[in-house]
Specification:
Helix 1 crosses helix 2 (33-45). The protein has one domain (6-163): Rossmann fold (3-Layer(aba) Sandwich). With 165 residues, it is of the alpha/beta class. The chain has helices at 6-17, 33-45, 63-66, 97-109, and strands spanning 25-30, 52-54, 85-93, 114-122, 134-138, 145-151, 157-163. It is globular. The longest helix is centred in the N-terminal third of the chain and has 13 residues, at 33-45.
């Protein structure tokens, strides 16, 4: 399967996001891939409110099964969440558990006016009722396949298909 180019998907997401940008709109990316995508969207959309980031490591409902990731990054929300229109950004939507955890964290910071989910790739396979309004591409992957967003030393983003072991 030939994967789409990451930058093309981000451009498509930016096109879809423009109508969702009322006053007090803010982007929040989920570490790590979602934060990279949010940074690119923030620049392309010329947004004024600084971009936020979330690390959901301790909020996952499968934490006891999967353990702690080797690198835990701090969450950073540099704006008032109360009353803001949050655009929550992730790279790949699969089971929905990451997004559910991210929403729990967001509500720890305050009560947003709205939360809109934007993802680069929706690969299907939901386990919880989470749906993205903004989607760069829908891909159908086998359960034995995984898609990963990577960033090289120059900051270029690319998608990689991996077999799950």
């Amino acid at each position: 399967m030939e994967l789409p180019k990451a930058e093309q998907l981000i451009a498509e997401m930016a096109r879809q996001l423009r109508p969702y940008l009322p006053n007090k709109s803010a982007l929040v990316g989920i570490h790590t891939g979602g934060a990279w995508v949010a940074e690119r969207l923030h620049a392309q959309l010329g947004m004024q409110i600084p971009c936020g980031t979330l690390d959901i490591s301790f909020y996952r409902d499968d934490f006891s099964r999967t353990g702690l990731h080797p690198v835990v990054k701090p969450s950073h929300i540099p704006f008032d969440v109360d009353g803001s229109h949050i655009i929550l950004v992730d790279d790949v939507l699969y089971t929905g558990r990451t997004v559910r955890a991210a929403m729990n964290i967001l509500f720890d910071y305050g009560r947003p006016a709205s939360v809109t989910l934007a993802v680069m790739i929706d690969r299907g396979g939901k386990e919880v009722p989470i749906c993205a309004k903004i989607v760069g591409a829908n891909l159908t992957l086998a359960p034995s396949e995984n898609i990963q967003l990577t960033r090289d030393e120059r900051g270029e983003l690319s998608l990689r298909l991996k077999a799950v072991s």
